[in-house]
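C-alpha cells in:
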C-alpha cells in the first residue's frame, strides 16, 4: 500500500497517510462474503417456503446464486435466476414490490447494525459461460487447437 509522508507539524511528528484502494477493484472481505452468504441462504429459504406472498414469485422457480455486499454492508445486490430463464424481469419487479418485507425478514435473521438495502439483478454468469463454451467449440478455435 503506498505511503505518503506529510511534512512535520509543530509537534515534531510526521503525519503518515495511507492511500486506500478503490472499493470496486478490491476483492470482497471475508465479512462481506460471510454476510452475503447468510443473506443468500435466508432469501433462498424464504423463496422455497413461499413466504413472500406474490403470485408472480409463486409461479416461478427462483434461484439466488450470489449476493454481493458493498464494503460498508449497507447495500446488497441479489442476483436472481429463474428456471428456464423465463419471466426474470417480472420476478425482479415482484421482488422489488416486496422489498420492504424481504428486507425486514433478512434483518431479523442476519444480526447486523443496519439491515442492508436490497437490489435485485438478473444473474448473467450462466449466459456468459454458455457464450464462452460456444466460442471454444467454434470451428476457428478448434482449428487453432488442432495445430498444436
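Residues out:
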Amino acid at each position: 500500500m503506498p505511503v505518503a509522508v506529510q511534512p512535520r507539524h509543530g509537534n515534531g511528528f510526521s503525519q503518515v497517510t495511507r492511500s486506500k484502494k478503490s472499493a470496486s477493484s478490491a476483492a470482497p472481505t471475508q465479512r462481506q462474503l460471510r454476510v452475503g452468504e447468510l443473506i443468500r441462504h435466508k432469501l433462498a429459504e424464504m423463496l422455497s417456503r413461499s413466504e413472500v406472498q406474490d403470485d408472480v414469485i409463486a409461479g416461478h422457480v427462483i434461484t439466488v446464486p450470489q449476493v454481493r455486499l458493498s464494503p460498508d454492508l449497507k447495500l446488497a445486490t441479489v442476483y436472481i435466476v429463474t428456471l428456464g430463464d423465463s419471466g426474470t424481469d417480472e420476478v425482479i419487479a415482484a421482488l422489488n414490490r416486496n422489498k420492504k418485507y424481504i428486507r425486514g425478514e433478512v434483518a431479523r435473521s442476519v444480526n447486523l447494525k443496519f439491515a442492508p438495502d436490497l437490489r435485485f439483478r438478473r444473474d448473467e454468469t450462466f449466459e456468459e459461460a454458455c457464450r464462452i463454451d460456444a466460442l471454444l467449440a467454434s470451428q476457428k478455435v478448434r482449428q487453432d487447437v488442432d495445430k498444436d
